[in-house]
């Protein structure tokens, strides 16, 4: 039996804006297109009603019932203790006990991080896990191949020390290699300036540690306005700075789209211009579509942990399932452990 045949992915189907429909529909499609098995955790009757109206392979789908779930507006730290039977907690616990090889949720990010930390062992020497996110760069349009920058952390930890940032770089290197095949990715530290003395004590010390690490291709600091240029493969930062960058980018993209719609409604000539630009817009569209990237891995665990976007549509959640499968097949956790 192949490794792909053996993999079981635990899915919290009650998390996210479109739960449980989207996670169940995506798992149903994945059961037909992959050899993985799926354990769907959530309201059994709702899950079965959705499965009854969608083609799927019943041999590859198992349902574990629970009524309880964690809402997006609930305070993570308290709710993890209070809702032990929530679908998210059950899914991470199953993964942590080795009954599943990977876990996915589109639910409350803070709660998912804490639930994973509670139930899934971390890799040796890892103090803090990191959420890794892909950003397209302008090389995506001008180069021979698609190019992304991998940024971590984008929200798991507001505060990190220099040791944490060093480990983020090592984990990012391993994940970028799995994504692209690049053995020696260019690594940068997100900072307020290019100079080594910029950014305060932690970033100055992190710069030195990254420079001293012989297994990393560390090339110095990078400022936020240069990220989309594509000079960096992996960008390291704490979760506070990374999350601000992530949310700011999402906001700019949404504003540009709204501006285009507004212009098309208000001015006939603008509408004609937008129509003529349509072919170019269609080329750029994949850059802006979060569903292309599926989910963001939480790196640093002994198991594959994937956070899907809270607004995930079927395509996005399906791609998150594919990301989990590919990460397991290419032994992501083992490679990170070896690098560490």
Oligomer: single chain
Residue-averaged pLDDT, rounded?
86
Task: Indicate the overall shape.
Answer: globular
Order of strands, main sheet, comes to 3-2-1-4-11-10-5-6-9-7-8
Helix content: 40-55%
Which consecutive residue ranges, at least 5 long each, have pLDDT under 50? Answer: none
Spatial extent as radius of gyration: 21 Å
Order of helices and strands: HEHEHEHHEHEHEHEHEEHHHEEHH
CATH architecture of the largest domain: 3-Layer(aba) Sandwich
Kindly, what is the distance between the CA atoms of the first and last residues, rounded to a whole number of angstroms? 30 Å
- What's the main sheet like? 11 strands, mixed
Please name the CATH topology of the largest domain.
Answer: Isopropylmalate Dehydrogenase
SS-based structural class?
A: alpha/beta
Could you name the CATH homologous superfamily of the largest domain? Isopropylmalate Dehydrogenase
Task: Supply database-style keywords.
Isopropylmalate Dehydrogenase; 11-stranded mixed beta sheet; 11 strands; 340 residues; alpha/beta
Q: What can be said about this structure in brief?
A:
The chain has 340 residues and is of the alpha/beta class.
